[in-house]
Amino acid sequence: MSSWSSWVAERSSEIASSHRVQLGLTAAISLGIGVSTVIGLQNASRWYSVYDLKESIPDLEAPHDVEAINEFGGAVPEETAERKDDERSAALARRARLGDYDEGLILEQLARNRVFLTDEGLAKLRKAFVIVVGCGGVGSHATAALARSGCGRLRLIDFDQVTLSSLNRHAVATLADVGTPKVICLQKRLQQITPWTQFECRNQLFGEKSAEAQLSPWQLDGQRPDYVIDAIDNIESKVALLHYCHKNGLPVISSMGAGCKSDPTRVFIGDISASTDDPLSRSTRRKLRMRGVKDGVPVVFSSEKTAPGKAQLLPLPEDEYAKGSVGELGVLPDFRVRILPVLGTMPAVFGLCVANHVMLDITGYPHDYLASKARDKMYDGILGQLQSIEERTAKHHGYDSVGIRMPVTVDDVGYLVEEVWHGRSAISGLASRLALIRWRKPEGDFVDMSTPGQKADKLQLDELVCMTKDEMLKHEKEVLRAGRAPEEVYDKTVVELVERRWREERGFRIQR
Fold first, then answer.
1. Which of left, alpha, beta for 104 (phi over 0: left; psi -120 to 50: alpha)?
2. Model confidence over 303-327: pLDDT tens digits?
3. Is residue 168 over pLDDT 60?
């Protein structure tokens, strides 16, 4: 035992006399103290964080700050870091538009578009001037896509403000933007992404009388618009815009109705004459035909048909009609007064298709869509047949039918066949070998002989019905010659269809 004690004493004496061993022990002790200190600080920090979080949760009985939400339902702007970021973005955008922005950074940001469109195509897009009319769900997505892709100049036209209900489909609006003009919202958000893009915002309602000023060249250097995007949901304004662009040779693309649609696989780009199964497209096309525009306008439209269980535009309640003139219930005259069911994704699909078309067309990238129907030859044939039938009918009633003139043109035939009768026979619903013929036997003097040397047929457009050629021959024999009433020849469903289509036509005719 004494030998063990003496050995331990000798070892302790050696350790105490060894400087290196002393340093090692000191370092080990210091490391242990440091680790313990860090762990302790972390635990303390975690405890204080949990304590602060719990304290930040207001008591259920505590009063709420009602001024945190404005009258529009949006957040009240405050002098926050986010607000300062907006101001810095605006200042950066002002400098970038003056040229104070690195070109290499721009090209890096647009690198994917650059390799797709080539340098030449991207250069065209960066020099392009595009006007977007309507900055809601469709227009905002089209604008955002164009700005992100490098479009150099964008003029935004819309009279409306961002609302809470806008947020389900608007491309960039936030809760803080509720109550602000849609055009300003788009500029403020997009200049944070592409500060070099030049924006011109017009918080205005588009109209036929203001079209020339609103679609005028860029003010600084007189650059003519390279493209106009129609994202308006009001038919009268839409028709005015498309007619102005068509008449003045401005390239334009129009978005038809995204409301009540849910199938993105049925969205197409094509000529307006090829658009089907879309009430907004049908009404727009019909009104444009009245102004002499039957094709040559590219549109984005959906071929999706309505069905049981799908969203529909519900009729206005009777108590709203009881309030007086329904037109007075709208935000503006002639604007819709019912809420249109809209799935938030569909306006985005339409808007991106619009922007895609504009980019391809401006840059010269190959694209091939649904062509116009180009059925003028067929309309000529139908008009010739109608002329022959009217001559035979006049002769049957004792008139000299040689040289009789009809007040019906090829464009009228196209309008009747496509817009009134939807390219189908009213009798059988068939769409081939079509013809037009009087629905009822003419009464009285249906040929005007008052002008010497001139025989004018008094035929009206709403007297004509679309049938197949075989049905037309049977109708001529039984109705126009034998004098039978259509109600005696056809069933109730056919007669009601004809009357309904004529009522619609008379309503449209008031606007012709």
1. alpha
2. 887 767 777 765 545 454 344 443 4
3. yes
84 burial level (CB within 10 Å; 0-12, 13-18, 19+):
exposed
Indicate if the pLDDT at residue 332 is higher than 50. no
376: Cα within 13 Å, side-chain hemisphere: 6
What are the C-alpha distances in Å from 501 to residues 270, 422, 443, 458? 26, 10, 22, 21
Name the percent of the chain in helix, strand, coil, to the closest 5. 50, 10, 40
User: Strand pairing of 464-468 and 298-302?
Assistant: unpaired
Claim: this prediction has a pTM higher than 0.85: no
| pLDDT on residue 451 | 79
Count the Cβ atoms, other than its own, within 10 Å of residue 9: 10
Architecture per CATH, domain 128-214+221-309+343-363, reads as: 3-Layer(aba) Sandwich (3.40)
Please write the tens of the pLDDT for every residue from 184-227: 999 999 999 999 999 999 999 999 999 999 999 999 899 999 99
Q: Are 172 and 194 in contact (CB under 8 A)?
A: no
The separation between the first and the last C-alpha atoms of the chain, rounded to the nearest angstrom, is 125
Packing angle, helices 111-126 and 345-363, rounded to 10 = 70
The full set of domain ranges for the chain reads 2-56, 128-214+221-309+343-363, 376-509
Residue 221 tokens, joined: 């250097």
